[in-house]
Amino acid sequence: MFFKNMINQPLLHFLLIGIGIFAFYSAVQDSKPEFPAATIVVSENDLDRLSLGFQSVWRRAPNETELKQLVDAHIKEEVLVREALALSLDQDDTVIRRRLRQKIDFLTRSAAAGLTPSDQELKAYFEINAGKYQTEPSLSFEQVYLGETASQEDVTRAQAALGEGADPLSVGKAIMLPKRLPLTTGALVDRTFGQGFFDRIGTLNPGSWNGPVQSGYGMHLVRVAKYEPADLPDLETIREQLVRDWREDQFNTFAEAQYQRLLAQYTITYPGNGLIGDASE
Q1: Residue 22 belongs to what H/E stretch?
Q2: Eight-state DSSP code of residue 188
Q3: How far is CA 98 from CA 102, 217, 250, 262, in A?
């Protein structure tokens, strides 16, 4: 039973696939034919790669002249790269080091792309991470600004005008705030009107003018048009996103495991100044 459970573990699949990928690329590199340092060989694979690159941009194959130009550019690049390597210009170069790390990450990520969670695994992942996929509550409303402060007389007068059918745009005082907002999440409402405004108007009865309600700018009358509470979508509705996120999590787990496996092959020494660690320990 233990062996069967281990076989079904995605992390084990990752480790095996990842080790296989690294071993394959290592074997490919080792099997490349050796040529004198001053020899540049343009292979059929090089021609195919250059042609495919041209086609991906121009949507057609290169003609003879264009292919010759591509080959000349490839040779020039190879010459300059070899000279740069001979001068150790690749050493301590942040951009080159970052690019090499990205290529290793790509090899690792290619293993993740081949994995597909079972329905049971996806359901469990969804349940564990449900909060990540829950939609935020939102509401649509319109508001009338009464000023930094508002007397009961101001409130009564504004409510009476609105009750008689006055255009909300003609009631209240001018301010650089939206008079109406469509369905909007709490974070955006609070960013516009001040912290806590969404929670205050979220308790109002939709369809009627209520208030005054305090914002970061003063007092308002508010009419909520629609309130939508937080909601958790059905698994099937977001299946594609779930699979992508599951793969990303699997990749991160595997990448760390792969790094630890590679790290174990190295001995790390530190300066003996006690700031990081004593190299003698």
Answers
A1: helix 10-31
A2: H
A3: 6, 48, 22, 18
Q: What is the CA radius of gyration of the chain?
A: 32
Q: How many CB atoms lie within 10 A of CB 10?
A: 19
Delimiting residues of CATH 3.10.50 domain(s) in the chain: 138-228
CA distance 82 to 75: 11
In the sheet that holds 209-214, the strands lie side by side as 180-185, 138-147, 219-228, 209-214
Q: Are 250 and 112 in contact (CB under 8 A)?
A: yes
pLDDT tens readout for residues 209-235: 998 999 999 999 999 999 999 999 999
Cβ contact 221:159 at 8 Å: yes
Residue with tokens 């469509």: 182
Can you tell me the distance from the alpha carbon of 24 to that of 31, in angstroms, rounded to the nearest whole number? 10
Q: What is the pTM of this model?
A: 0.56
> Quick one: CA dihedral 271, 275, 280, 281, positive or negative?
negative
Q: Determine which of 20-24, 41-45, 239-243, 251-255 has the lowest per-residue pLDDT on average.
A: 20-24
Residues 6+ apart with CB under 8 A from 165: none
What's the confidence (pLDDT) of residue 280?
43
Q: Which distant-in-sequence residues (6+ apart) come within 8 Å of 244 by Cβ?
A: none
- Beta-bridge mates of residue 180: 142
Domain 138-228 has what CATH class?
Answer: alpha beta
